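testing teh design pipeline on a random one, pls ignore if ur not involved
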């Protein structure tokens, strides 16, 4: 099962952040979780009071750097909603500190590239730039992060397909339970997707039928809500094939599993995950292999999966 008590939405009141809030509110309502909306004021000179649900946030200068002010706390449609402002120079640190202090389970944020306009990713069609803060949070946060880019704002609060790249590593198999629990609130179909990489002679090591059978078996072993599911196999480069499949979805969500390590707090995104998160035409949910998990009592055991016919695969997301 999945257990989410608190969701955090860092916001700068952009379209991406607004989309993140709408998705977060829907999930908080479905899971019975609280929702914190955090805005970091980096300096009073350039600050203009934003509008939050038609209510002006004022008196921002009444608290000093390092201080936190709860602007508003209310219950809306059964969701405990807290709007919080914090003043400080390091936005990422404030977000991560708030996560630790408030025991946040899930971070949901827009990523729009205001501080990273020169960092375009080459080699992938139709790119958008992941923002510096978003990249740092995805990389460093010790809990799952749900990111929404500019193209994820076209149909906010709508997800009809959940694309789950599976490479049969223990890390990626954790996503199977997440897939059930994230698809259910939207009534979405789960699409389990595996990419076969060809050898130098152009041949692949296994048959598609083997992979499809293994995907079905693994998914059936996972607990969670009953959802519609389909199984797909492609050949090529993982990131490109995943993005190609994502581009075919009208309103989708991609699930990724990081392969990072808790001690590598200054690490950059891995090549595959970086390409997917930056170029995805839809929201991306990144689950961590360290820190907090939303699964209770934990990820499903993969011991029984050792008897399945197909084990070898390619790592498609490596943070």
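output:
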């Amino acid at each position: 099962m999945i257990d989410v008590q608190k969701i955090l939405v860092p916001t700068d009141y952009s379209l991406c952040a607004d989309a993140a809030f709408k998705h977060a509110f829907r999930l908080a309502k479905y899971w019975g979780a609280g929702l914190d909306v955090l805005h970091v004021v980096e300096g009073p000179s350039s600050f203009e009071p934003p509008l939050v649900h038609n209510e002006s946030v004022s008196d921002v200068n009444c608290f000093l750097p390092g201080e936190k002010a709860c602007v508003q706390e209310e219950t809306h449609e059964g969701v405990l909603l807290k709007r919080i402002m914090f003043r400080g120079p390091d936005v990422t640190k404030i977000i991560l500190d708030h996560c630790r202090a408030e025991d946040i389970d899930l971070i949901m944020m827009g990523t729009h590239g205001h501080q990273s306009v020169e960092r375009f990713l080459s080699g992938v069609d139709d790119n958008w730039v992941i923002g510096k803060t978003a990249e740092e949070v995805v990389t460093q946060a010790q809990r799952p992060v749900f990111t929404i880019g500019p193209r994820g704002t076209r149909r906010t609060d709508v997800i009809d397909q959940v694309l789950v790249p599976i490479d049969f590593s223990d890390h990626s198999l954790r996503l199977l339970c997440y897939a059930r629990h994230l698809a259910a609130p939207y009534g979405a179909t789960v699409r389990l997707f595996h990419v076969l990489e060809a050898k130098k002679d152009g041949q692949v090591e296994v048959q598609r039928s083997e992979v499809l059978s293994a995907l079905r078996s693994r998914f059936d072993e996972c607990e969670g809500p009953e959802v519609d599911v389909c199984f797909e196999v492609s050949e090529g480069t993982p990131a490109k094939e995943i993005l190609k499949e994502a581009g075919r979805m009208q309103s989708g969500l991609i699930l990724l599993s990081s392969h990072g390590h808790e001690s590598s707090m200054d690490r950059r995104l891995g090549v595959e995950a970086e390409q997917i998160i930056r170029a995805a035409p839809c929201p991306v949910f990144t689950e961590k292999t360290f820190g907090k998990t939303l699964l209770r009592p934990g990820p499903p055991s993969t011991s029984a999966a050792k008897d399945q016919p197909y084990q070898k695969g390619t790592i498609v997301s490596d943070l």
